[in-house]
Specification:
With about 220 residues, the chain is an alpha/beta fold. The chain has six helices and 13 strands. It is globular.
Length: about 220
């Protein structure tokens, strides 16, 4: 399984049936491949609740998600103005937002909209989702293209919101915010505790369950 698909599949396991879920650009969009569309409600901030996948032959160029990717509409889907969509987000009516990130730090702060020195379009809906959604899941590669850690002690890129990310899923590990810090609860694929430590500058603790599991390998 490809790395991005592995992250998406594991992320889908965290979702509760009947949830309203907003999927960000990139890896988050792949999460839909692992959901029973009849049991989840996918939301896009440009104004659709009931997003589904669409076959190429059925693509409507006017029907896209916030990332401008073609989407389909579920039976009973609802359309609304983007202002109403953001009112849903800001009002706490989106259960889960799944977002990509450039960096997440040990305090849970997310940076996912700008790289210093590079052109940007704008922060988009990320800051609203980070503030308004009831749960935040971050999906990302554990390191950047140059090999530098993305789970860091302090974000060096412009932050998106001071809201903490609840769960981080990377190609190496799954971290959950518990008792004022992140806990490593699961290793992904063939990753090891040593590999995660080597590629992380954030402070975290390893769950007792995972430690026992690794000792018994």
């Amino acid at each position: 399984m490809k790395i991005k698909e592995m992250i998406a599949k594991r992320t889908a396991e965290e979702l509760t049936s009947q949830s309203i879920i907003n999927l960000g650009i990139g890896i988050p969009t792949l999460v839909a491949n692992y959901l029973d569309e009849e049991n989840y409600y996918l939301h896009t901030e440009n104004g659709l609740l009931g997003v589904t996948s669409v076959e190429e032959a059925d693509v409507d160029p006017l029907l896209v998600n916030a990332g401008k990717l073609p989407v389909g509409e579920a039976v009973g889907a609802s359309y609304f103005h983007s202002a109403d969509s953001f009112a849903m987000i800001r009002g706490g009516h989106v259960d889960v937002a799944i977002l990509g990130a450039l960096q997440v730090d040990e305090k849970g702060t997310v940076a996912n909209w700008a790289v210093p020195g590079k052109g940007i379009i704008g922060v988009g809906g990320a800051m609203d989702l980070l503030t308004g959604a009831n749960q935040i899941i971050i999906t990302m590669g554990h390191v950047s293209k140059d090999g530098s850690p993305k789970f860091v002690d302090t974000c060096t890129f412009p932050i998106t919101s001071t809201r903490k990310a609840d769960i981080i899923v990377t190609d190496l590990a799954v971290f959950k915010w518990k008792d004022h810090g992140y806990e490593l609860v699961e290793l992904m694929g063939e990753a090891t505790l040593e590999e995660v430590e080597k590629n992380t500058t954030a402070t975290y603790r390893v769950s007792e369950v995972l430690l026992r599991k690794e000792k018994n390998r």
